[in-house]
Structure formats: C-alpha cells, structure tokens
Please model this.
Amino acid sequence: MIVYSEELKKEIKYKTSRSSGAGGQNVNKVETKVAILWDFENSSLLNPEQKILLKEKLQNRLQAEGLLQIESSESRSQLANKENAFQKLVFLLQ
Model:
C-alpha cells in the first residue's frame, strides 16, 4: 500500500473541533480534536484494486459521502493531534 508521503498529505483535509475530557480551561475554548478526511476514491495514489480493498476493510470509518475519517483527541495540542491522526492513517494503509 502507500507509505508515508507528502503526496498523501496534499490529498487530505483536516477538520477541528472541541475535544471532550480533561484539558483544564482550554477544553471549552480551544479546538484541539482533529479529524482527517480523505477522499481515497478520487486519490491518484491508489490503483482501483487498492480502492476496492480499502472500501471493504474500512467501511466503519467511512462517512456517508465516502470519505475516510480518522480522529485524534489524545493530546491538548492541535498540532500533536494532527500528526497523531496522520500516523493512524499511515498505519491503516500499511
């Protein structure tokens, strides 16, 4: 499958929201939760067989629009959650 690449980063979109749980005063003000959205069906990085395989294996992570969604809210840092979500995506693709 795909390995970590800059091309993959260009194809994904990030969405942020407020994270639940511990976080002190920032929990209600700062959007630290990150979701990655990837339209893998229109990706130039995958061949048709890989797209079919992803659709089958990752059905529970697909939105109604067919976008693959990966979330991260482990850190209080939006940047750390963004990187963590991307690493989760790379792990799934491997």
